[in-house]
Amino acid sequence: MNWPLARFRPRLIDSLKHYSRGRFVKDLGAGLTVGVVALPLAMAFAIASGLSPSAGLWTAIIGGSLVSMLGGSSIQIGGPAGAFIVVVYGIIERYGVANLLIATLLGGMVLFAMGLLRLGSLVRFVPTSIIVGFTNGIAVLIGLSQIKDLLGLQIGHMPAEFFAAIHALLSHLDTFNPWSLALGLGSFIGLLVWGRLWRPSQAQAARIRELLGDLPGFNGAAQTLQRLPGPVVALVSLTALAWWQDLPVDTIGSRFGSIPSGGPILAWPDFSWASARMLVAPTLTIALLGAVESLLCARVADQMVDPKTDPRFHLKRHDPNQELMAQGVANFITPFFGGMPVTGTIARTVTNLRAGATSPVAGLLHALTLAAIVLMAGPLALHIPLAVLSGILLFVAWNMGEWHAFIDQRDFSSHYRLLMLGTFLLTVVLDLTVAMEVGLGLSCVLFVRRMGSLFEVRPQEDPATPDQNPQEHELAHVKRFELYGALFFAAVHRIDELIEKVRPHSTFVLDAHQLIDLDTSGVDALRQLNQSLTQQGGSLHIIRVQAQPMSLLRRSGLAQEIAECAPE
Questions:
Q1: DSSP 3-state assignment of 146?
Q2: Of the residues 362, 388, 404, which one is the last residue of a structural domain?
Q3: Rounded distance, CA 541 to CA 529, Å?
Q4: If you count Cβ atoms within 10 Å of the first and of the last residue's Cβ in the chain, which end, N or C, has fewer?
């Protein structure tokens, strides 16, 4: 079998063909904006995953630059993502940091192979109900993981398992720190308000202009403030407040010590085949989640660009196979620098698009901006309260979850509700790997059941018509039926019902004009029907058979066994 491989051609090559100074200016503005936004998120994701802040920062820098340089999207931003918090934390607790690096490296190889074998489109076959279920489940677990720092609880080790985590939180409530709660809620509420404050509705905007428009410099200040990213405003303002008031809260410095001001250190992971064999499940989880997350992110970005009205005409639909290969390279490289898994990030990609990005150059500039901030202002991060980061992550979890799906599910089928709620509960109570395995298996079972229920055997009550085979007019005890749908292993019970209707000297005429597909189980059921009719002195006639069923009937020999098998 010849399986054509995907061509390795990064989108950056095509983007630079007609690159101009004007586009560079736009990419520079977008890169600076996203680089500043990525700073608090990268640290927060790493800390919540059980790693040091520098692991998240260098993952965003190295992984983000590789995704932009080699990816198949014009505006995708890669780096650590909130969806991986629960996965990474669970792997660290069960296998350790060293094995997390190995699993990430192996996951990168799987991702690259998926792209090379043109499997990028297969990710779209994951049902929406499963994606919504595990996305909401991950959002709940992210929120649960941040309660510790939000309340300032002194828990030495936070377990990853859901019920154990709740028990740990309840048993340490006596260490509650009200200052941490105040900073965390201030961060979360501030982020909720910030976007609405500077992007009001038309009625609100008219009212604000009426009340404040006459103040000197109001319009200019409003335009400047609305460009500032909310997470950066929350991080800087609340960190300054905590430092100025010398609030007794945990900070990055008190928890992790200093952040290295130099570049990342290249180190070879402690690899062994014994470790690799026990990391099959974590490897597949990282690869599958990375593929789904990055390709969904790229699709969202594509849908936000209208080629007819958007002047950035050079933006093209993403290449899913090239994107997977880029994600694979990024996840293969970052573990050598102590990084965590890399994937596409929806929040930063949307920010990149809205900031005016025109090519992958913006993603490279975002990585350079983040590297410059880390190298020049890294020591200042020591004063950031962990409660402020927990508020930012709670906001990320709130935006990640599709909470309306729990209300809207009443409008969908029971299959959809079962898949979504089942995946959600399994993600929360057990883990993402089990949820994905059970969800995909259950979706296959429900799909087969649904397709089997669509097959029908309808009796024809009308008498024979002149256009039918003249031989049929001479047949006694003729019963005619029409076959609708696909006759496969999940629908053969319908043929069994026909066998129960066989009487002595009966002749069955099956009109297969609406039979669109037939498998070997269906052939076996028809053969049993023919044998039952033959034993009772009757016969089986199958008329108006379409191409696929006719081909299988002939190859199986059943066409020669029955009294008549006529093509359409």
A1: coil
A2: 404
A3: 11
A4: N
Residue 256 inside a domain? The answer is: yes
Total domains, the chain: 2
| HEC letters along 200-221 | CCHHHHHHHHHHHCCCCCHHHH
Query: Which of 404, 421, 446 is the endpoint of a domain?
Result: 404
- The boundaries of the domain holding residue 479 are 455-462+471-567
3-class SS at 553?
A: helix
CA-CA distance, 281 to 263, in Å (whole number)?
A: 32
How far, in Å, CA of 296 to CA of 135, rounded? 12
The gap from C-alpha 214 to its chain's centroid, in whole angstroms, comes to 48
Distance of alpha carbon 557 from the chain centroid: 46
Q: What is the block-wise mean pLDDT of the chain (568 residues), using blocks of 10 residues? A: 81 86 88 86 88 90 95 91 87 89 93 92 77 84 88 85 89 92 92 70 56 54 64 87 90 76 73 77 89 85 67 69 95 93 88 85 93 81 87 86 80 80 86 77 84 86 52 61 90 88 88 91 91 89 91 90 85
Per-position b or e across 438-453, b if 16+ CB within 10 A of its CB = bbbebbeebeeeeebe
Q: Is the pTM of this model over 0.85?
A: no
